Amino acid sequence: MKYLEKTALSRIFIIIFHLVGFIGFSLPQYHDFFLSFVPFHLLLMAGILLANQKEFNKNFWSALVFVYVGGFLVEVVGVSSGAVFGVYHYGETLGIKLANVPLLIGVNWFIIVFCVGAVLKKYLKHQRTLKAAIGAVILVVLDFLIEPVAVRFDYWSWENSEIPLQNFIAWFFVAFVLLRVYYELEFRKSNPVALTLIICQFLFFLGLNLTVI
């Protein structure tokens, strides 16, 4: 019973925070206020995801560290060289930076990889490579929705204000590698809030694309 109550409350929190954030981003007079809470929102979503994780063994922590560090380092290489995603740099919205990359970027990779990974884990049994590829396609679609919003609200910006095709190709390969390792490591991947969280992310960015951008 307590488990069900925690899951239900977690889902309610996820929905409410995304809905409130959507309203705040949609109202120009509140942009600065809500943008200041973006780092806290990401940390809260990561915390809710962790709170509903069913198993914390060595492989789970190995997957988490690999996704966080791998996602962060590829962004460091990308920002410094322009050779991964294209030429871009981060603004101030995502908070404290190391090597010109917000530390929260790794948290964002953790959230989306673990959400998509958990949702797909019960399908295509033992076909880890195919699941990783499907998950990577889903995350490319999510990035397609994120990009205009991110540029509009100073998450990051692109050279000549153009989002290159290279970015989406790189997103696929980075997401694929992160998901493939996630599936290779054995731990209980079920997470009862993963579907709610990834749907809310899709709806949040889709809504802003339709109403603000």
TrEMBL record:
Pfam families from the UniProt entry: Caroten_synth
Organism: Pedobacter psychrophilus
Keyword Endoplasmic reticulum: no
Transmembrane segments: 9-27, 33-51, 63-89, 101-120, 132-151, 163-181, 193-212
Name this protein carries in UniProt: Carotenoid biosynthesis protein
Entry-linked PANTHER family: SLL0814 PROTEIN (PTHR39419)
Matches recorded under InterPro entries: CruF-like (IPR007354)
Entry keywords, A to Z: Membrane, Transmembrane, Transmembrane helix
